[in-house]
């Protein structure tokens, strides 16, 4: 296990050992913070019938994340016996205050910091707005909690799909799922979904989707008034145990060595970085924290 973590992420052996037992409650995706990083990297050996779509849901990952971490694995029909990297290691987004909910659009992941527990973070993969319907960035609040929400079909969607009713009642066909959290922007919700294969993809009209099994967990913890910061950070970095870790996610803001280099300059970390390791991390864009120290 330790060797898998070290080999797939470039972590030091001591640091990898410290991450072996981070979850306080694995079923709730709750982790202890280790500086600016949470989680661990594991592996899964595929069996007949496995697919990366199913494994993503099993390990509470988005489809994009597991594919980026396994670029040479067939996502639909991986060969039985293939070792799949489970990329459950993350750098916390860079925000002024670690409180409430933080959503990083670039990595399609939500972080929740329980009040009164500064050493804990809860995290879930998400689906986000498609092109032309981008999820807005900014700082908002939760203003309403809804169980079994009805879907008031937006006019734009009615024009595309006139067969839909003006209001879809709760049920298995409702795209809002079983729970919803309305943000102060009004038209944007954090909610479940009846299409779990869309988690880790750009699939919505601006809302944030969670797996059906994840949304009740967040719903129970988040309160009316909870702060929700939505950011777009394709590059994240942290200094952990004296080592520089960088996490890169694809997209025009995150592509390229120059963007990563300039980001590390702004963070005051560039003098600790091996340029060759940084170039390799940029080329791979694995979506996982990578050690780029000298």
Explained architecture:
The chain has 294 residues and is an alpha+beta fold. 21% of the residues lie in helices and 30% in strands. It has 8 helices and 19 strands. The chain has helices at 2-9, 13-18, 52-58, 63-69, 155-160, 215-221, 257-266, 275-284, and strands at 23-25, 30-32, 37-45, 83-91, 100-104, 109-113, 120-125, 128-129, 138-147, 151-152, 167-168, 179-183, 189-191, 202-204, 208-209, 227-231, 235-240, 243-248, 290-291. The strands form 5 sheets. A 10-stranded mixed β-sheet has the order 1-2-7-6-5-16-9-12-13-15, with helices on one face. The chain has a 3-stranded antiparallel β-sheet with strand order 17-18-19, covered by helices on one side. The protein has a two-stranded antiparallel sheet with strand order 3-4. Strand 12 and strand 13 (189-191) form a beta hairpin. It is globular and about 60 Å long. The two termini are 25 Å apart. The model is unreliable at 1-27 (pLDDT under 50).
SSE arrangement:
Blueprint (H helix, E strand, L loop, with lengths): L1 H8 L3 H6 L4 E3 L4 E3 L4 E9 L6 H7 L4 H7 L13 E9 L8 E5 L4 E5 L6 E6 L2 E2 L8 E10 L3 E2 L2 H6 L6 E2 L10 E5 L5 E3 L10 E3 L3 E2 L5 H7 L5 E5 L3 E6 L2 E6 L8 H10 L8 H10 L5 E2 L3
Parallel strand pairs: 5-16, 8-14, 13-15
Antiparallel strand pairs: 1-2, 2-7, 3-4, 5-6, 6-7, 9-12, 9-16, 10-11, 12-13, 17-18, 18-19
Question: How do you describe this structure in short?
Answer:
This protein has 294 residues and is α+β, with helices and mostly antiparallel strands.
């Amino acid at each position: 296990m330790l060797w898998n973590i070290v080999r797939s992420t470039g972590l030091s052996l001591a640091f990898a050992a410290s991450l072996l037992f981070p979850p306080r409650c694995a079923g709730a995706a709750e982790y202890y913070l280790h500086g600016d990083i949470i989680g661990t990297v594991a592996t899964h050996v595929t069996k007949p019938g496995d697919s990366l779509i199913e494994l993503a849901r099993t390990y509470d990952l988005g489809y994009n994340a597991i594919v980026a971490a396994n670029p040479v694995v067939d996502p639909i029909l991986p060969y039985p016996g293939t070792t799949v990297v489970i990329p459950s290691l993350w750098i916390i987004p860079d925000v002024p205050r670690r409180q409430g909910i933080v959503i990083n659009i670039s990595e399609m992941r939500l972080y929740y910091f329980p009040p009164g527990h500064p050493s804990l973070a809860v995290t879930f993969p998400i689906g986000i707005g498609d092109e032309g319907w981008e999820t807005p960035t900014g700082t908002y609040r939760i203003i309403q909690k809804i169980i079994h929400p009805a879907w008031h079909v937006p006019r734009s969607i009615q024009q595309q799909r006139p067969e839909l009713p003006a209001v879809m009642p709760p049920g298995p066909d409702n795209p809002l799922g079983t729970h919803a959290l309305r943000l102060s922007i009004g038209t944007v919700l954090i909610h479940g979904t009846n299409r779990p294969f869309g988690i880790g993809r750009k699939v919505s009209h601006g809302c944030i989707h969670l797996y059906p099994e994840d949304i009740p967990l967040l719903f129970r913890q988040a309160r009316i008034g909870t702060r929700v910061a939505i950011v777009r950070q394709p590059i994240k970095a942290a200094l952990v145990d004296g080592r520089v870790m960088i996490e890169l996610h694809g997209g025009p803001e995150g592509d390229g060595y120059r963007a990563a280099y300039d980001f590390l300059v702004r963070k005051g970390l560039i003098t600790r970085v091996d340029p060759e390791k940084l170039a390799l991390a940029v080329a791979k864009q694995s979506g996982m924290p990578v050690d780029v120290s000298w």
